[in-house]
Specification:
307 residues; mainly alpha; Serine Threonine Protein Phosphatase 5, Tetratricopeptide repeat; 14 helices
Length: 307
């Protein structure tokens, strides 16, 4: 939601009125205070379930802000976000789209300060969701590709923001079921991330986790086992042989090994699955005790494997 304290401070600060087309007149300050009042009333109506009234007030507040500061002033981004969030939270994606497109246009042309990438990427995520929910995945893909190319051009291929853009592209392919493309993206990301942050870094562990899911969807079970074993190694190094994140990774690895046993009947895989289950069980017991649901469930999976 809009930070009303921040808006009020902006109103009181002459420098915030230095944008083209915006005067520091008392009339402008009165209009902006009126917009704040509309936003406050809209939030109150939301708590009462009066959504139509809240929507009207959000629109009124935005209109007032546009009149006071100009349609193309980046200062109205927060106001546009308030209205677009109102629609997104109610799954009204068609209604949210024009406001998100305006936010995107304003942000992509803004000064690239420290918050530029994070703000732009957040807007892209929301606009991509609109495209995905309205059966236009191609338009969402273009957003993520443009973000990646922009970061590669301005920051280089190994900057962390570029790697985050690459990860967003991979996540898009994964959630839309384009698993072959997701595989290619995450394999590239894994190679670069390991070179940038080291083979045993937490960032590499995150990529390995995503890649394991994609391999599973593609039924590449031996490749999935390999990346899960590598993820376990990374977490083992980070957490010194303990920790719930390590236990969770061990459990996932054991599950995949167990599935491979059912497919192949391989005794070697069976032995590996039992060992991994037992190690995960030992960590969970140490953290949770011997009688919790998590521990009991893991014991049951180990028993089924043995049978």
């Amino acid at each position: 939601m809009i930070d009303f304290k921040g808006i009020t401070e902006d109103i009181a600060t002459p420098s915030s009125m230095a944008s083209p087309g915006v005067s520091g007149s008392g009339a402008v300050q009165v209009e902006l205070r009126q917009a704040v009042d509309y936003f406050k009333m809209a939030m109150e109506y939301l708590t009462q379930g009066r959504f139509d009234d809240a929507e009207q007030l959000y629109r009124m507040a935005l209109n007032v802000s546009e009149t006071a500061m100009g349609m193309d002033n980046p200062a109205i981004i927060g106001h546009l976000e308030e209205l677009s969030n109102f629609y997104m939270n109610r799954a009204k994606f068609v209604e949210a789209e024009p406001y998100l497109k305006r936010i995107y246009a304003l942000r992509i042309n803004s000064v690239q300060d420290d918050s530029y990438f994070e703000s732009l990427a957040s807007t892209i995520d929301k606009l991509a969701m609109v495209f995905e929910r309205t059966a236009r995945p191609g338009e969402a893909e273009k957003l993520y590709l443009n973000l990646l190319r922009s970061q590669e051009k301005s920051k280089g291929g190994q900057d962390q923001s570029t790697l985050e853009a690459l990860s967003r592209l991979g996540n898009f392919y994964q959630r839309t079921g384009v698993y072959a493309a997701a595989r290619a993206v995450f394999e590239e990301l894994l190679e670069i991330q390991a070179n940038v942050t080291g083979a045993d870094s937490p960032e590499v562990g995150v990529v390995l986790s995503s890649l394991s899911v994609v391999y599973g969807k593609l039924e590449l079970y031996m490749e999935q086992i390999a990346v899960l074993e590598r993820q376990v190694q990374v977490l083992d190094t980070i957490h010194g042989g303990c920790g719930l994140s390590l236990a969770s990774a061990l459990s996932r690895l054991a599950d995949v090994l167990s599935g491979a046993v059912r497919l192949t009947g391989c005794n070697e895989l069976l032995e590996r699955a039992e060992l991994v289950y037992r190690r995960a069980l030992s960590i969970y017991e140490k953290h949770y005790g011997p009688s919790t649901a998590t521990v009991e469930n893991l014991r049951l999976r180990l028993k089924k494997l043995s049978n």
